[in-house]
Amino acid sequence: MASSSSAPLPLASPSSYSDHERYFISSGKQISFQPIPTPIYRLAQTTESIKTKGTLWQLNPSASDDPSTTGNTFDVVSSLPLFVARYDSPLVSGNDSKTIYWEFEITSLGYSDTLASLAFGFVVKDAGSEAVASNSNGSLRPYDQVAAPKSLSGPSVLWNSTDGGVYDNGAKVPDSDFQAKVGDTIGLGITFQFDPSVPMVPTRDVNDNPNAKAGKFSKSLDSKGNKTTRVAEVKDLVAVPTRVFVTINGEEKGVGGDVARAFISGVTDVFPVLVVSGPGVGGKVKIGEAVNFGGEGGLADAQLAAKGNTANAGHKKSKFSKVFKIPGGGGWFGGVGMGSSGG
């Protein structure tokens, strides 16, 4: 996790994922989180969770006198990312955009006599953060260790319940004030946009599982029967423009400025992260078909992915998604003619 020194750590290299993992990433199903580093707080499944399509976790609040949470903060990261740079970058897929999004329905924000707050959003992992995150005590730290909401796993963009602000790696984005209270559902999304002034990066085709049978794993295949996925090499990835937005009870609100572009730019994998300070914070984590928001990156895209069309879920289709030839005969863009070995 992030060091206390001023020098930033290098970011983790983008990963490749199996075809069934790519399905879970696209559809938002079965996304789990690291264990919370105090046994009092729990992310649990309920009857509602089991019946809900997509991912729904109930955050059960701690008692007001729990010594492991009073005055302390923890952050936990999801098991799989929602943006996979080697597959999802618009300069790999050729689509106009790729939007990732998730929500938190607030049921409790602490107790009247004890400070508590919620922050949630996205993180890009520091290189080596996995080894620390596996430690059950790895992310519990005093309030004053960070002056503002910030993940210890790496650079983060977070919505903060205390002031409704969006925090870009610990710095509040100017003029961001998106207040939400108990009973509200707050959402955070990022759209990665195609830049027509930048050449598409070279890609190759990865064969998806040809033996997948009917069932949840076969839904990783495109609904039209396509069984390959474009993938780029890490060294070829190029930054793209991004846009951050907030929703409150389904109403979208734009966030101004170049938020998080220093670390969230389409060249890194991006994970959901939940940050809780103090006791008594509770609510529902919603990803995929569990979300309420129907706009880009929300429920409609999740439902598309759940039907098996993972190639287009979260994407806005573009005229650029056809095959491109590199000038001078140097090969092909768009996943053609560059091999079909694993990703």
- The CATH architecture name reads Sandwich
The CATH class turns out to be Mainly Beta
- Count of extended strands: 17
Helix content range: 10-25%
Radius of gyration: 20 Å
Structural class: mainly beta
Q: Termini distance?
A: 27 Å
- If you average the pLDDT, what whole number results? 82
Shape annotation: globular
Question: Which quaternary structure do these chains form?
Answer: single chain
How much of the residues is beta strand, in percent?
A: 25-35%
Task: Please summarize what this structure is.
This protein is mainly β and 343 residues long.
Topology overview:
Elements: H1 19-27, E1 42-44, H2 47-51, E2 55-60, E3 72-77, H3 85-88, H4 90-93, E4 97-109, E5 117-123, H5 129-133, E6 141-142, E7 156-160, E8 166-168, E9 171-172, E10 185-193, E11 204-207, E12 228-231, E13 242-248, E14 251-254, E15 271-277, E16 281-287, H6 299-306, E17 315-316
Antiparallel strand pairs: 1-2, 2-16, 3-6, 3-15, 4-10, 4-16, 4-17, 5-7, 5-15, 7-8, 8-9, 10-13, 11-12, 13-14
